Each structure stands twice: as C-alpha cells, then as structure tokens.
Amino acid sequence: MPFRPSPFFVRLAAVGLLIAVPAAATAGRPVLVTSSANAGAGSFRAAIDRANADPAISLVVFTGRARTVALQSTVVFSGAQALTIEAAGVVLDGAAIGAGPALLTTGGGDLTILGLTVRNAPAEGIDIEVPATATGTLRVNLAGVAILANKGHGVLVNDQLDPSTSDGVPPNPAGSPASIAIALLNTRFEGNGYSVSDRDGLRVNEGGDGDLTFVGRLVSAEGNAADGIELDERGPGNVRLDLWGGRIDRNGIFDPSDLDDGFDIDESGDGSIVGTVAFTTANGNYEEGLDFNENDAGDLRVDLAYVEASGNAEEGIDYEEDDDVAGGGDLVTTMIGVRASRNLPGGDGGVKIREKGAGHLTARLNGVDASENGGAGISVREDALGSLTAEIANARTVGNGSHGIDVDENRFDQTDAVADLTATVTHSESRDNVGAGVRADQQTPGVGVLTLRRVTLTGNGAGATTGNGVAVTTIP
Ligand SMILES: [Ca+2]
Ligand SMILES: [Ca+2]
Ligand SMILES: [Ca+2]
Ligand SMILES: [Ca+2]
Question: What is the pLDDT of residue 28?
C-alpha cells in the first residue's frame, strides 16, 4: 500500500522540506541533470563524476527533463564533500545493474536527497559506506524519497566493519569514530530485501565511538523482507530516537528460520537508548512490532504516545534492558494511548517491559489497551538488583492467553535490600484472561505492594489477583 498522508500532513511535510534543505543546497553552482541516459552528457552519472572530480560541487539538480534513469551499473559518489541531490520525482531504476547498489557513497560527507525514487537494484538501493577514518557526525537526510523493491537493504548506512558479526572486541568494536545522524521526512521503504536473510527496509549500522541519531516524520516501512527499520549501535555511544508518524507494518516474512520485526533497535556497549515514538503503527510484522534492546552500561528510556503494535507474531512491544549483556542501567518509560492487541503466542505479551541486571524499572502506562494477545496483556518484569515501579491507569487487558497484567520482581540474592515492587492499577478493566486479572509477584527479600483502585477483574481463569509476597489493597 502506498503511503497516503492527509492534505494536512502534506502541507506539514512541505514546511518540513524547507527546513530540511541544508545550507549546502544554496551554496555553489549546481550541476544540472538534463538526460535520462545511463551515462554521457547531462546524465546523473556524469553529474556525480563531476562532483567526484571537484570537491566544490555540492549540489546536483534534475531539471525535470529526466524522468526514469535505467542504470546499467552502480553510480559511485566518492567525494568527501557534502552533497545534495534534488531529484523532483525522478526514478533511479536498478533492474539492469548486474550486481551492486544503485547508488554508493564512500566519501563520508553529509548526504541530502530530495524527491527521489530508487527501485529494483540487485543489492542496496542506496549504500552509504562510512570511511573508517570518519570523524564528527555524518548526516543523511532523505525527504520525499521512495525506496522500493531493492534486493538488498533499501537504504544501508554502514559504519561497522562486519555487521554480520560482533566484529572487534567489545567495548570498542570496529567502526569509525564518527556519529551517524539520519533524518527522514515523508519517506518510504517498501518491498526491499528479498534476496538473502536479514535485508531490511532501512538499516543503520553504527560502530566504534559515536552516537546513532534517528529522526523520522511521516515514514513508512512496509512489507520489507527482514526488519522494516533496524538501528544497530555498537561501542560507546547512544541511540537517540524521535519518530512521529510512522507506518511500520507487515515486515519480516522472508526467512522462516529468522523472522523479523517492524522496528528493531539493538544498542550495545556504553550508552543508552533515549527517545520517543508517537502516532505510529507497527502492525502485522512477522516477529515483534517494536523490539528495543539495550545492553551493557546505559539506560533504556523510550516513551510511546499513540502507538499501535497489533497482530504481530511475537510481542507487540518488547523493551529489554540488559537483555543479552548485563551492564547496569535503568529502564524508564511512559506509554500513553498505546494499543497492542492480537499479538500471537510466540511472544510474552502485547506489551513486554523487562529490565535485567543492576538497575531500576519505572513504567507509567496510561490508556494502554492490550487485549486478545497469546501471552499476557501487559508484562512488567524486573530481575536482579533494583526495584520495580509500575503505575497503570485506564488500561484494558481483556481476553489474553496468560495474565491480563503481570508485574514480576525477581531478587538478585538474599542480601539485596533494594528489590521492591510497587504497583498501582487504577480505573482499568482486566477481565476474561486465561491467567489472573493481575499477577503481582515479589521474591524475598523486598517489599511488594499492589494497589487496585476501581479495577474490573471479572472472569479471569486464575482469579482476580495472584502471586506471592505482595500485599494487595483493593479500593472499589
Ligand atoms: Ca562510529
Ligand atoms: Ca557507537
Ligand atoms: Ca548500553
Ligand atoms: Ca539493568
């Protein structure tokens, strides 16, 4: 399905475009593309070759005469300067490329692309390879861009020596000292990656020192072979996330032995995942809808507002802090107006929020509907050192295959004095679940307190409440 924003969104996008065009676009004389030919005078390839030869060239503009460029081989931009490509609706078609991406950049400068479609390449649509010596921040800005049916990743930004392995030795795996910042406006990634396993709509690999920053406004990633969007940050540095208006649906079907997610973030080494996702869907993906994993030192702090993650094959929303490598750090989240329903039994629940290793978990959920999931509706779990605080209001958890709401605090050891559970559920209904309406479990030592205020808890197979070590106060 094409992405069809409302007229209001289109106007918003137009305003955003004006903001997004960097100063480089107005500096220097543009090289004009006047021909749809694969090569030769006035072609896109010739324009990029001129930019390769002259670092003063920072702007390539399609004049409107070219419509579809049937590339016969990869176009390589090797210049180190920032480059802006104003395409005004032109299509780069890679169907006749024998092998390789449609567009490859290797120089490490900022790249801005406006109004371009890239389709049918036998590998990546656009491959941005970060030089090992890059420093500072490499910025990639895409506005009004469509990335369609490329066989590799739709767009790859690669700052890792070998993304398929944990290359280098943690905590400093191989990758340049540079940070990566990608900004997307009214941009879509559809039907990419159908060649080999693990090819995504958008993949950003950051390695070594540096952060990975992702900003998206009106972004769709639909029907891609592996993840719709994957952000992979290694070594020291944070992932910063700001997505508004995402449609990240029906991704991950390609490899039955490794089905994939809508939006996958993997952070390792020192550093946190911090940010917001709002007005976004992650529905019908073949593994999880949102799959955010933070490892080693650092926190996971991502808030959600008006997000739907339903009909996925595993969890709708899966937050895991210290999932694979415990290194301390907290998990803190506020979720408002979230729906996570009809996610299948492959996962632990509609909304799964899990903190491991040292660190506290604080979850504030208001207006979360997590119903008819194969597992629990809402699962909040804290393991090892640290306490669990959950404030759940205006929730609806109905007809789930396990508990409606599950708050679970697991001790570190018998001497851990700071391992308490404090949960409040107010103005909510948790009924007709296979498990309990609310399960609250506190391993000793530690104090467990569950307060229920105006909560409907009828028709649950394992009773209104269950669990050990928790004092339950019910206020009608
Ligand atoms: Ca880096
Ligand atoms: Ca890093
Ligand atoms: Ca970390
Ligand atoms: Ca932790």
Answer: 67
